[in-house]
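User: Some background: our group keeps a shared notebook of sequences we're curious about, and every so often someone picks one and asks for a predicted structure to add to the entry. Today it's my turn. The entry only has the sequence so far, pasted here. Could you supply the structure so I can complete it?
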Amino acid sequence: RSIAQKYSDCLVLLVGNDTVGAEKQLADIHNIVFTGEVSYDNLPYYLYAFDVCLLPFKVIPLTLATNPVKVYEYLSAGKPVVCVDLPEIEQFRDLVWRASSPADFLKCVEKALNESGEVLRKQEENRRLFASEQTWIHRGIELLSVLHDLHMPRISVIVLTYNNLDLTRACLESVLRRSEYPNLEVIVVDNASQDGSAAWVRTHYPQFGLLEHPRNLGFAAGFNRGASLARGDWLLSVNPDLTPAPDFVSQLMRAVGGDARLGMAAPRLLRGDDPDRLDSTGLFIDRRRRPYDRGQMQKDTGQYDSAHQIFGACGAAALYRKAMLDDIAIDGEFFDEDFFAYGEDADLAWRAQKRGWHGCYVPQALARHVRGWGDTLHKPAQPGSQGPRLALRNRYLMSIKNDGLSYWLRDFPLILFADLPRLVYMLFTHPAALLGLLDAVRLAPAAFHKRKVIRASQTVTDAELRPWFERSWNV
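Assistant: Of course. Here's the predicted structure to add to the notebook entry:
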């Protein structure tokens, strides 16, 4: 009645069997017409002429549990739809006008009638597109996907970006569209990029979680912030300069399924600039306390084709069990945020090993790693580069936190013999990097505090971990 009275120049056509005597109650309204039952063969002709389709449901337990088929039929014709706001209508979002009261219903009808021009054309296109995807075939595919996901743990992929939009585009394309793994959650953490990375992600991947920081927090804190939002059973750290194969995640997950104390998995990383050469097949630490990526720059001839345990995983692409990260966290931090970047993955692996967690290498999980984004440890230092300074500082912080004193003293001559030439070289080629020594002194009290926490919770002795340091794991 209200609609007919407000729009007296419009025809309100009520199609269907009148079971409540509405026609008699509305007999005084000249622009309301009851058609009675209309065959499905003739309904499209009525629908073609409609300007707005109305679904004024009475809210009762039955309608609260109803998914109205009429909505799909109306949308298939691109028509505006105004409906009482029922739970099942929420899925249509802005394709359907939803009203929560009679007055709101009138306002929605007005908005629907006012659609015109490019807005109307675009909305008609969106409605038809949505309806075209609501077939039994689509429903079957969705059902199979859900059933498949029931057996697939959720993986939270955490991608850190910092002024690397081109790399980020390629990475997210590979992670999302080319991945065969069905149960992925993607969280992008932007460390104050100035190249529009965050805006691009927001526009092209609105379904992703996006954290934007007003300043560069570094890799460690950036990952931790992303991990705090993650809902997955496993967390996959991904640098934006990584291009994984379609079965990358699936291969990793096949390898970690059976062992409850398996907390880390490392893929086979190939050089982005030379895919015949390796970039990493696992992370290790030698007696000089220097972390290294096994096999780096070696030609891939199959020497690392077998799966086995490793010390840790390169943070550019590392799969971590969430339960392990929670177990080894110190003051809520997974990666040590004092590290900022460089060496935080080796420090995390050492802490995990001390708590009885271990890692595995998965040679079937392949990815290319450009190693151009933020990498200053494997190329000549650039003016203003902080990489060598951070790497120097973090190696000493890692030892303070994790090293057994007796083994450190035993290896001290080797450490000193390796470090002195390096420090002298830095003095002449990159003197600013030596500030890392002062940084280490400044952060030492915090590192000693963390050492107490680590030693108090340690379940594997230093003697048991010693074999990891005593041999070279390169082939």
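Suggested note for the entry: The chain has 19 helices and 17 strands. The longest strand covers residues 358-369.
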